[in-house]
Amino acid sequence: MISRRLKSNVAALIGFMIGGACQLPPAVAQPVSLLSAGAQSTGLSAATLDRLHQPILRSDLKLLGAQSCAAASCHGGPHPGVAQPWLSRGSEYPLWFENDPHSRSWKTISSDSSVAMMQRLKIMDGNEIVDQKGFDNCLACHNTTKRFHEPRSTEERKEGVGCAGCHGPEELWNGSHYQTGFDALGSTEIGFVANGDLLTRARTCAACHVGDQDRDMNHDIIAAGHPALRYELATFHAWEPKHWRDSEAADKQFYEAQLWLAGQIAAADASLSLLSARSRDHHTVSEWPELSAYDCSSCHHSLGLQDARRTPRADTRLAIAPLSTWNTAGLLWVLHYRIEQVQATPEDLRLVESLEEVRRLMEAGPRPNAEDVSAAVGEARLAIAAWVDGSAGRSERSRFRSDRLGRVAASAAGKTGSFETWESAVQLYLATVAARESWPGGPSGPLRDIGESLRQGLAYPDLTSSPEYALRQRKGPVATRAEVRLKTLELVRWLGPVVSDNQPMPTEGERSPEQIEQSVEDLLKNNAKLFDSSPGVTKPIVPAVPPKDNEPMLQPPVVPPVPVPPKPKLTPEEIRRQLKALQDDNSSDQ
Amino acid sequence: MLCLFVIASGWQLAVAQEEPVAAPGTQPVQAPAGDGATDPVFKSWQKQAGVQECGKCHFAASAFSTPDAAFSKQNELQFWLANDKHAIARRRVEPLNDEDMVAEAVRLVEELELTSVPKDWFGASNQLSLRICEKMGYDVKTNEGYVLFRDNCLTCHGGYHGQGDQQEFVKVQDYKNDHYQPGISCNGCHQIDSNVAWIQQHGVQGADKQWRNLPPADKAAAGMRDLVNVSVQAANCYDCHIGNRSKDMFVTHVMYAAGHPPLPGVELQTFCTSMPQHWQGEAELYRNLQSFAGKDAYFTANFPNLFDGEKLAKLPPDKLHWDTRKMIVGALAARRQTVQLLIDSASPERWADYSLYDCAACHHELQEPSIRQLRGYVGAPGRPRQFEWPSALLTVALDVAGEDVRKNADASEAKLAAAFGQSPFGDPTVISQIGAELNQTLDVAIERAQSKPFSGVPARAILKRIASTPAHKLLVYDAARQVVWAIQSIAAELAAHGEPLPENLAAKITALGNPAVSGIEAALPAGRNVFIYSKNLDAELNRKAAFDVEKLAPLLAEISREIVVQPAAPDVAAR
Question: Which residues 83-122 of A are in CB contact (within 8 Å) with B?
């Protein structure tokens, strides 16, 4: 299951072309004052990116269901609306219903494997729902219903992720959104999500594909059988069957890079929103400390790079699971690139520091202080919003094209830490692929084979389960850090200057147990050559008294005492010289 | 008599290579094997004043005219030095690089006139230890760094007893001085703290018989650890093999992450046998004392809860199944020690060290569906569980103690499991409280189990019960191996007592320890010349990863079906 998910992630962009032009929506960052009274009453913060997707977080608006949108004259038409290309297609509902996996989400949660998961989680007992809150938490992402732990009473429609799941609860805008003059970007207050803005779209998707303050796919659920969440918007967007006119995709070099950037910002914010809820008692289904916040491969080694488990992180000796980098690595690469290019603003530095503080607190011990983490996460979310609203965010969202993304990836590839974990290495690969429009020769050019080779090196075997330790010992398909770095560098050196941070790879200079064993054997073997060994001198020492019949079975066999060995023929000076030579030989073998 | 033996010490002979001075009533003592004079292990230990003292009586056996000499094998020290890995436990982990090894090899060759580098003295584990130290931040080239290594590692690997230890535990570069102790000394196990009064008392001429028959509490008061008592022996072994935070004997997750091999689950009887055991078993001792009139008094005095005159007559010690008893008491004590480790770790700075949890709770293959999921969860899935191996034999062991005790323990265990399932890593305060309650029950269980003399029938009943252990308790390799070890221990003892199982059944039990058949390797990498790191460890980790209880379960079921418990057995244990 994990490998299938990975394959779907990392295979997505190789050889997959998307087209279309993108025009940056005029209201990239909406004023904080737009946070609705309803949203405020739900406890949402106007100073965070909650303002972008706040309608789907609100619990004060009714959900009407996808059928309410499916009239033939509205979004349920039989044919794509081609007569008025500036309006909606008119066939969104059937396109979604027939093509979009979100429409099959109810079927997914009703499957045998989902029921088995819910039974393991004690959400179900037999065929009965016995934990409504836990079930609501599942439905929060698998169906358009109320979210976890909120009082709204809704009719369960069993429609999967319907229209309101992404576009917002329809109660206040259902009767007006088709009218002339409806301001989509200005209707957040009445519950409409302005998904025309890529960052808003990214944040909406991230609410489920990462998690949020009102929906939490945690380690308990993963242990029960749910796949881990691996959100990267450029990849997901390429795979999503579009029920809307994807006309922005025409500017390829802008579109995929912007999707990637929006996805990284949204993922970071969503993961922090989720972490904030988890750190406060009873706000999610999770119990502190929530293990899914950490890098999976830190405990489940078979999910990591081939040699990751042999080399603990250089910057900590606590042997504590490191915080997952999946949702923050990309944004940090952008920030560090800006710092390297002397483009950093105070917002850049504030955001770097706040993200590092969250990491520091989460890795301070096996049970991090929840209150401290909550405070640090709050500051980090504010810092993200400030960055988006500030000159740094505005600048990047207007000029971030695939060539700049390529340079960001090249900068990241020069840092050893980018290959510390499988998560980070895969994110870097995905960033590189999201910049494919700037590859020499394009996505189908000569770099394609290197990219495919890297993809295969990062993918798990084509099994539904993690590779067994025994298989990994025989070098499985997941590459080593050094191999991943080598191939990534082969790719990104065409995209921008790679400046190495001159940190040795954790594996370099490390001797494997086999090497050590071999060197010891060599030492003994060579040592034996130094002496005129008489037979028997290496025999084990045995007790002088023969064991009695009734003594333990494991007592060694009795052998006659060996004679006192003759003195070595070599002089001490010669021994020193030759052992020194042996030591040099061992060293040069490394 | 023992005093005379002091004069004619085999240890002295081995060191000096002189002719023995035959004491009246003794035969000339055999000198040890030739390597004993040049083996660096022997050479190091011979410099230890305390061990020298032991060697006066316990180095090389001699024949005695009096039958009570059979109380001791008298070659314990020599046997231990030659065969037991504990004797070089520190050597195996002295942090050395190539350069250190070469320098030491040169010096050894010169000083001991060796003709080859002693294999037992150097190993890949020395370099592993150095790497672990480097990752832990111990700069062992400096005194400060070596002190960190000593305080955190040599408490188990070197018999270092913390502040006040009389040994200096100096850096390895200085080991040629007279204080270098290459492993666990005699007193590391046999002595309580620094109380040396017993050393003179137990060997004084004329006082020996009186000493032997003193109540165990009196011996302990004089400083001798009462290793005759299985639970005392178990606690002593488990301090290192499970952990004891009050003695700084604890393998942290930092150590594991830096490269320390995982501690294997312990089955006391199997581990003792595999050391190999340098002392006589109780049945063997009783047989060797056949002509000694004081033997019953000795057993009555030293096993006060087990024997009285009536029981001795009914079930003489040489007919009892001591190994089965040790396995049962060892299982109870192992659980007690793991719970105590939790209790001792229930402080904010100690709690939730990952090494308090079953390695396989996190480090397992990720499969769906899996037996792990089919088994179900106490609380939510995905919460790190306690070590599973100490519970594999627990139900049977508790039943030996009595149904009331088992019910109490079951209730506490259920609460403890729920506490671990309540939140990731569990609440230390709650777990500590429940743990204390459980250990009170286990203390009662241990006391009761130790007071039961086991004969063949209850041994078979226990064997059948253990072979019937449900598969869901054996998902983890170490838990499954507990069962295999226990079954093989009981079967071996039945055979030793002339009550062997049918040949076909015995063969199946032997095959349980064959990894090709069951996935379990029952043999331990024991013995002084056997290295755990790295080949044995690699093989072990592969077995753990590949272990599938579905392979073992049908074999156990078959064995369970075939074991016939004589209908005369009303209970699991004889009373």
Answer: 113, 116, 120-122
The answer to whether the CB of A80 falls within 8 A of the CB of A90 is yes
Beta strands, E only, B133-249 = none
Q: What is the pLDDT of residue B307?
A: 86
pLDDT: is B520 or B369 the higher one? Answer: B520
Q: Which of A546-550, B5-9, B323-327 has the highest mean pLDDT?
A: B323-327
- Closest by CA to B325, choosing from B266, B396, B381, is B396
Q: What is the pLDDT of residues A341-367, one digit of tens each?
A: 999 999 999 999 999 999 999 999 999
Tell whether A367 lies on the interface with B, counting CB pairs under 8 A. yes
Q: Indicate yes or no: CB of A576 within 8 angstroms of CB of B106.
A: yes
pLDDT in tens, A73-85: 889 987 655 556 6
Q: What CA–CA distance (Å, rounded) separates B117 from A235?
A: 60
Contact predicate B91/B157, CB 8 Å: no
Interface check A538 vs B, CB under 8 A: yes
Residue B242: closest CA among B331, B338, B386 = B338
Q: For residue A14, what pLDDT is reported?
A: 32
Q: What is the ipTM of this complex?
A: 0.86
A555, B273 contact by CB (below 8 A): no
Chain B residues within 8 A of A538 when measuring between CB atoms:
116, 119
Peptide bond into B470 cis (omega under 30): no
Preceding amide of A88 cis, omega within 30: no
pLDDT, residue A141, reads: 94
pLDDT above 80 for A573: no
Which are the contacts of A486, defined by CB distance < 8 A and separation ≥ 6? Answer: none
Say yes or no: A5 contacts chain B, CB-CB below 8 A: no
* B221 and chain A in contact, CB less than 8 A: no
| H/E element, A125 | strand A124-125
**Cα B423 to the center of its chain, rounded Å:** 34
Q: How far apart are CA B568 and CA B327, in angstroms?
A: 23
Please tell me which of the candidates B370, B383, B546 has its beta carbon nearest to residue A470: B546
